[in-house]
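#struct-help
A.M.: can someone run this one for me? Single chain, 59 residues.
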Amino acid sequence: MTARSHRLVVYAAIAITAYLLGAGFGGGAAVAAFLVLGVVAELFFWVELFRRGRRRGPK
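D.P.: on it. Structure tokens below:
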């Protein structure tokens, strides 16, 4: 795996964990914080996925 691939996995894992933790809490600031963290991590995931210079095909 390349460094970018590792970053994609990390961003996806953070987003999934944040969404699950946010859904696990009943409500309030904790839910909002985890949902915001999930959205930010998902945004980083998509930016990294479609970043310029990323190879899209086989080597």
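A.M.: thanks! The chain has a mean pLDDT of 75.
D.P.: also worth noting: The radius of gyration is 14 Å.
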